[in-house]
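Subject: design request, 607 residues
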């Protein structure tokens, strides 16, 4: 994995790319490089995973007297098949890096090259003969691609901070950005970069900019399509099993130490079981990690959303699978200390301790490993969230995971936040998205609801999880791969009848039955458990004290934003949840600390 950045257009400030690139060195500490030719300048920081000696970037090739240069961030999992096809067309490779595979794919297949790629990626290619820049992002948005325009120059980067370093890109947040923060964060709208001038290339989107053209011509090369389903139950189980095991095994390729993240829940256990089997075939032992918090065992309280703790399951399964297992434990102080660095990693106030704890754990994993496989994206694809099987949650006029949309924004000055107007605007965007979900004649009402729930989950909820995983891991130069995000899996599962996904009222039944034999029933049919959070009361004490320190600081940016009377009700012990069930009162305190840090550190201007 890596960072990419660049600019394209006459009048571009070439030296700015060096500053942009330097801000993302944590993503790629192994090698940095730049490229300049005419109107284009590229910057790249490399985390060497495949062919450490030969995969330096930016990379240039010549073909038919024409030159092509790429900056690329990602991993391509069907590289062997693509290379065989390219060699049959006469291409001779200089390296074993998949960067070269992507570049030659563009040389031979042009704008159609993304359709050939199975992987996670974001890249830009300068086509010197055509004097144009081609840009692309993977189908499910695992890898980031932000862009902006300034004075007729097209700019792009892996992270927001890099774009903000360019003269002419100002840290301005307009009304839509503010409503996004106060209603939706850590979720963002599909194209939004929160800052007024910054946008995101959509998942499954590519495009090009002509020199002097002043416009990004974009198109979707991939989207989720509804199709009739003709397989039997047995065929569906066999197909899912085959796709799942193939996805994991493809993602085990690495020239640096690799591990898996094992929570003890279904998703990470499936990934780990297949990965452990792959390692055994090679005479190796898989390394696994699980996360815990100091004080959790003594203070854990079960709920409908989190009926039991993960820690015992992870250790038990690791022993069953024969992995080299490590339990990483974070104290409340360590989780708090990472709140501000987590904002620096994400460039936004994100998911409070869910971000900061992951940031801490990734730093610990990096001490021994450079690549990790994780279980993200299963719930969005196989139907693991309550809004998949509770129709009333989709009947509300707002995003289903926000059961109290006004909770957080009501803590802010109403003259500034204008919550009623904001609710109408954000709700209208939500309703407009729902209208885009296609229905085919074969769909029952139940099946159509599952399509709506999937589309919402994949393009909103899942994007926030992928952004968190990318930013928190890459801040420590740790590459995290997500086998469930293989587009072949979601293309197939999207069209499997809901009755097979929710058989006998059990969420993710399709995945559970497909992976029978890979896992013990104790784990295979265990109820879903979310990413763990701290239950230590010490954490709330620390975040409350930290927030009070902010509020007592006369120079605090929050003074101009917050409704102190409303917030005081929460500080006095009032009930408060604002995002699913993970984000409650301690997380609100932490998020407000993050918000204050972000406003100061990024010199945010509300316009």
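Subject: RE: design request

Done. Sequence follows.
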């Amino acid at each position: 994995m890596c960072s990419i950045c660049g600019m394209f257009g006459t009048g571009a400030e070439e030296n700015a790319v060096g500053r942009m690139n330097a801000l993302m060195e944590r993503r790629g500490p192994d090698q940095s490089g730049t490229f300049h030719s005419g109107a284009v300048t590229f910057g790249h920081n490399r985390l060497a995973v495949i062919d450490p000696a030969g995969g330096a970037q930016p990379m240039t090739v010549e073909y038919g007297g024409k030159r092509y240069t790429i900056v690329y961030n990602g991993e391509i999992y069907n590289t062997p098949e693509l290379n065989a096809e390219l060699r049959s067309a006469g291409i001779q490779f200089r390296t074993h890096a998949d960067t070269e595979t992507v570049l030659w794919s563009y040389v031979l297949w042009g704008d159609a090259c993304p359709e050939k790629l199975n992987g996670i990626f974001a890249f830009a290619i300068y086509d010197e003969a055509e004097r144009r820049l081609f840009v692309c992002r993977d189908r499910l948005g695992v890898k980031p691609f932000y862009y902006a325009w300034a004075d007729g120059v097209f700019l792009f980067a892996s992270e927001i901070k890099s774009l903000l370093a360019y003269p002419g890109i100002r840290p301005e947040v307009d009304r839509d950005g503010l409503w996004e923060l106060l209603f939706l964060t850590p979720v963002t709208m599909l194209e939004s970069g929160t800052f007024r001038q910054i946008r995101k290339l959509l998942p499954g989107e590519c495009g090009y900019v002509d020199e002097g053209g002043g416009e990004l011509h974009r198109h979707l090369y991939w989207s989720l399509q509804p199709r009739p389903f003709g397989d039997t139950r047995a065929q569906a189980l066999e197909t899912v099993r085959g796709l799942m095991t193939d996805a994991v095994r493809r993602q085990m390729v690495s020239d640096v130490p690799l591990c898996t993240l094992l929570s003890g829940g279904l998703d990470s256990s499936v990934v780990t079981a297949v990965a452990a089997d792959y390692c055994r075939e090679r005479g190796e032992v898989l390394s696994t990690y699980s996360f815990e918090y100091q004080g959790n065992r003594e203070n854990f309280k079960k709920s409908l959303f989190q009926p039991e703790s993960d820690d015992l399951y992870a250790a038990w399964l690791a022993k069953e699978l024969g992995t080299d297992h490590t339990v990483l434990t974070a104290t409340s102080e360590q989780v708090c200390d990472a709140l501000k660095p987590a904002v620096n990693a994400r460039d936004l106030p994100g998911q409070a301790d869910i971000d900061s704890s992951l940031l801490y754990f990734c730093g610990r994993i990096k001490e021994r490993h450079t690549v990790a496989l994780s279980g993200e994206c299963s719930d969005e694809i196989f139907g693991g969230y309550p809004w998949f099987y509770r129709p009333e949650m989709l009947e509300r006029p707002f995003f289903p995971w926000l059961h109290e949309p006004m909770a957080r924004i009501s803590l802010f000055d109403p003259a500034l936040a204008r919550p009623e107007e904001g609710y109408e605007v954000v709700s209208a965007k939500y309703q407009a998205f729902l209208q885009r979900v296609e229905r085919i004649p074969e769909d029952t009402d139940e099946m159509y609801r599952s399509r709506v729930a999937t589309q919402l989950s994949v393009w909103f909820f899942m994007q926030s999880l992928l952004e968190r995983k990318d930013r928190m891991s890459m801040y420590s130069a740790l590459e995290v791969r997500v086998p469930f995000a293989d587009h072949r899996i979601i293309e197939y599962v999207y069209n499997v009848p809901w009755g097979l996904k929710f058989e006998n009222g059990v969420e993710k039944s399709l995945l559970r039955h497909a992976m029978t034999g890979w896992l013990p029933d104790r784990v295979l049919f265990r109820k879903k458990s979310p990413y763990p959070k701290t239950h230590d009361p010490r954490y709330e004490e620390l975040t409350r004290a930290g927030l009070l320190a902010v509020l007592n600081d006369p120079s605090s940016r929050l003074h101009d934003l917050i409704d102190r009377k409303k917030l005081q009700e929460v500080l006095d012990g009032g009930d408060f949840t604002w995002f699913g069930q993970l984000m409650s009162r301690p997380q609100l305190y932490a998020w407000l600390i993050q918000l204050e840090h972000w406003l100061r550190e990024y010199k945010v201007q509300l316009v």
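The chain is about 40% helix and 20% strand.
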